[in-house]
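Section 5.1 Outputs to date
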Amino acid sequence: MNPSDYNNRLSRKERVFKQREQDILDAALNSFCSDHWESVTVSQIADQVGIAKGTMYLHFAGKHEIYARLALDFYQSLLTRLDEPLRGNGISRFRQLVGRAFEVHLQSPVYRRVTQYCEREDFKCSLKPQIAASFDQIDRDIERIVSAVMIQGISEGIFKPIQLDELILGFRCTFHGALTRFWANRNAEQSQPDKFVDSVTSYMLSPIVNQPDTLKMHYKQSTAQLQSTEKDLELNHE
C-alpha cells in the first residue's frame, strides 16, 4: 500500500498520534547530538515535544524502545539504499554495495551512536520479542543482498569459492571495524572519506579475489563499464 493511501485511511485521531510519535523520535534524535546523549531523559524529550511525560509512554515504554525505533528506521533507510539495482561484474557490484553502505552511515553521525548502542548484548536481551524480530529481519535482508553479490562473484570465477557465512562474517567485521576507525580519527580519515572508503573496499576484496592481478584488472573493467553505462543514461535522458 502506498504510504499516502495508508495515511488517508487513518482517522484524524490516528494521524495525530502518528505525527506525535514522529515528533518524539525527531526530538530524541536532536537530543542525542550531544556527547552526553545517554544521559538524556524521557522528561527532557517530552519537554522538547511539548507533551507530558506520561504521554510519552503511550508511544514508547522507555528510552530503550526509542533507541530501537531510531535504529530500525536507520537500518530501513540503509536497506532501501542497498536494495537499489547494481551494475557490472562481481567486483563492481561489491564496490557499489560497500560504497552505498558507507554513504548512508557517514551521512548519519547521530544515528551511529544509537545503532552502536543497539548492538550491545544487554540491549538486545532487553528488547520485546516483536522488536527483536524486526532487527533479525533487517539482518536477514542485508545478508540476502550481500550474499547475492558474493554468489555472482563466485559464479564469475572472480571470487574464491569460500563459504558464504565466512564471507558475510568477514564483510560485517571489516565494515564495522572501519566505521569505528573513521569516527575515531576525525582529522585523518574524515578529511578524505572517498579515499578511505576506496582503501577499505580494496582491503575487503583482496582476500576473496582469485588472483592478485584480478582485482586491478576487474577494477579497471568495472570502472569503464560504469562510466559507459552512466554516459548512455545521460544520452538517453537528453
